[in-house]
Design brief:
single chain; alpha/beta; Rossmann fold
Length: 230
């Protein structure tokens, strides 16, 4: 069965080149150029992954990513954009994106990143616990990709879930930063390291309601997820 790619891009020339290349490589692709039509296509096409531009007519990519995440929390979303500021990177991951490619890009890189995202998702599904996890005042619903606090429910992306499970895999155990990078991204490049920092900041903010939970950064070493007894 072909991998279904939902590609959202409003530049006609780039959209045609990327679409034709991915189709030649064996992907089943649906191209959407208008942000207002994305959610309808998502429900009818049932993609395995989304490749999403940020600057779109009617609905921007950040908003779309949040809507996609609400509908399908485990779906990988790769942002494809000309924006390169750190603030844009942070905003993309906070919206629920799982990867980020800057224009201009090579088709080889895009294909590698698509396959990497799909492999990571497949590996994550095989290792998910078969029951919810209790983390202080929170409950982690692994089947629904949700972190549930006393006051709200946070939808997690597949990558956020993967990182959180690695951080909480041992009781008060240090998780080496390099090991985390290699397990999640496959390499410890500067770009991936900076991306990990974004995820850690977001996860730390999600646990703000429980003062007995602390995600500690150990400079030069890694992370320690602490759940203090009450």
């Amino acid at each position: 069965m072909k991998t279904r790619v939902l590609y959202i891009e409003d530049e006609p020339f780039l959209g045609r080149i990327v679409s034709e290349t991915l189709q030649q490589q064996g992907f089943d692709l649906r191209l959407v150029a208008d942000g207002a039509l994305v959610m309808k296509t998502l429900r009818s096409f049932h993609p395995d992954i989304c490749v999403l531009d940020i600057m779109l007519p009617n609905v921007d990519g950040y908003t779309l990513c949040r809507e996609i995440r609400a509908q399908n929390p485990g779906l990988p979303v790769i942002f494809l954009t000309a924006r390169s500021e750190t603030s844009d990177l942070v905003k993309g991951f906070e919206a629920g994106g799982t990867d980020y490619i800057k224009k201009p890009f090579s088709m080889e890189e895009l294909i590698v990143r698509i396959n990497n995202q799909l492999q990571l998702l497949s590996s994550l599904k095989k290792t998910l616990p078969d029951k919810d996890l209790l983390l202080g005042r929170y409950r982690l619903s692994v089947s629904r990709y949700e972190l549930i606090s006393p006051t709200t429910t946070h939808k997690l992306s597949a990558r956020e879930m993967e990182i959180l499970l690695l951080l909480t895999s041992g009781s008060n155990r240090v998780v080496e930063r390099r090991d985390l990078l290699l397990q999640v991204w496959g390499d410890d490049s500067f770009f991936n390291s900076r991306t990990l920092d974004v995820y850690v900041r977001k996860l730390r903010s999600l646990f703000a309601e429980d003062p007995n939970i602390e995600l500690v950064t150990l400079k030069g070493k890694g992370y320690l997820f602490l759940v203090k007894s009450t």
